[in-house]
Amino acid sequence: MTIPTDHPRYGSLITRERLAGFLREGIVSPEGLTAHGRGEAFDYLIGERTTESALLAEKTAAALLSSSQHPVISVNGNTAALAAREIALLQQASGAIVEVNLFHRSEERVRKITHLLESYGATVLTGTAERIVPLSHDRALSYPDGTGKADVILVPLEDGDRCEALRKMGKTVIAIDLNPLSRTARMANLTIVDEVTRAIPMITGFIGTLQEPEISLLLKTTDNNYFLKEAMKEMNRRLADALD
Ligand code: PTJ
Asked: What does residue 150 show for φ and ψ, rounded to 5 degrees?
């Protein structure tokens, strides 16, 4: 199907085709497509733009990554399919370790996602994954030199159980999740309610410009509930005015 470039939803239709292609290649899981649909619905509610509060959350994420001793970016199928280039650029700016962690894990998917990320210039941690996250299934598998040592971990589009388990391990968790009501959003230390391809470049940009004392101030004043409530308010405002 050819989509006319002047179609009002051209961008999201192209993204859907891209994800469907990555599904056929085995990079995105079938469940990843439903997760994307949920994300699209929330993005529509928030106006398909970065809100003021999301921008502050992105700046705070940059402060957390900048002050971390061992930052890690955890990448799954959806994130790689949507934002491989953005991940590579964030890695360059932050010096973070990039690690592939999957909900629907197979070694073949890990390999394919690793190759995709590498083709965009990311350096991906490889080796033998071990059961280091306190979960009973394959989501426990991660790398001792990555997640194992991480103090701050960025988890775009994470599931709630894994987010909770990472908190139990004492990690500072930064989530990117368009659903402010998800368990991940509520469990994380900091949630960026924004679309992943908008959020990551913002974080990267802030890393280049942030300095002390602003970094310390952002870290001291972080309040995840504030970010979730602001996102809900924004969605409510848009719904209230939707038919005007
Ligand atoms: O590749 P795998 O096997 O690791 O699987 C990845 C998925 C995403 C399928 C898995 O982690 C999963 O099931 O996640 P959830 O529990 O569906 O959570 C994904 C969250 O991300 C949901 O709250 C969505 O609203 C949100 N989301 C989806 N697309 C985007 C998004 N948030 C930001 N940007 C998006 N593009």
From this structure: -60, 140
Whether 178 is in the pocket of ligand 1, judged by its Cβ within 6 Å, is yes
Helices 196-209 and 52-66, axial angle in degrees (round to 10): 50
This model's pTM is above 0.90:
yes
Centroid of ligand 1 to alpha carbon of 189 (angstroms):
18
Tell me the per-residue pLDDT of 30-67, one tens digit each, with 9 for 90 and over: 999 999 999 999 999 999 999 999 999 999 999 999 99
**Whole-number Å distance between alpha carbons of 22 and 24:** 5
Nearest atom (ligand 1) to Cα of 40: 29
CATH of 52-240, one of 2.40.40.20, 3.40.50.300, 3.30.365.10, 3.40.50.12640: 3.40.50.12640
Distance, CA 174 to ligand 1 centroid (Å)?
Answer: 14
pLDDT per residue over 182-199, tens digit each? 999 999 999 999 999 999
